[in-house]
């Protein structure tokens, strides 16, 4: 895992729910490439066309609210999100993202410091977020050592396999 992520920002408001992240009408899709085609479709239909692997989602409060379906986090992993910065996350979405190896980072006030297209640099380990476009700097809440281990392993399942000495 890269401890520093750099990418363009895609900015969303508060209360982005899991159906906006991955609309429920696509839950029957099982191929990861098909799933990725619908990332953020309910909130921004042009997202997948503009998004580049490693780009960063920025949101206000309560990102990932709604259903507990893991599909929302899976689609963001599939599209290659570098990190998700939000002022707060819905609890289940947050754990789904972390467990899949997606840096979901709580960063108070971030939605006021970033506009769509700004280039951000995020130090996942220290929580320092730099808006390279404007020069603004924010401090995210630090991740625990346990969460950093999950992210470094690529998710909770790979971490457990490593701990048990199981190759995959």
TrEMBL record:
GO molecular function, one term: 3-isopropylmalate dehydratase activity
Enzyme Commission number(s): 4.2.1.33
GO biological process, one term: L-leucine biosynthetic process
Major enzyme class: lyase
Domain Aconitase A/isopropylmalate dehydratase small subunit swivel: 48-102
Biological or metabolic pathway of the protein: Amino-acid biosynthesis; L-leucine biosynthesis; L-leucine from 3-methyl-2-oxobutanoate: step 2/4
A Pfam family it matches: Aconitase_C
Function: Catalyzes the isomerization between 2-isopropylmalate and 3-isopropylmalate, via the formation of 2-isopropylmaleate.
Similarity comment: Belongs to the LeuD family. LeuD type 2 subfamily.
Oligomer status and interactors: Heterodimer of LeuC and LeuD.
Name of the molecule in the record: 3-isopropylmalate dehydratase small subunit
Organism: Lucifera butyrica
Lineage start: Bacteria, Bacillati, Bacillota, Negativicutes, Veillonellales
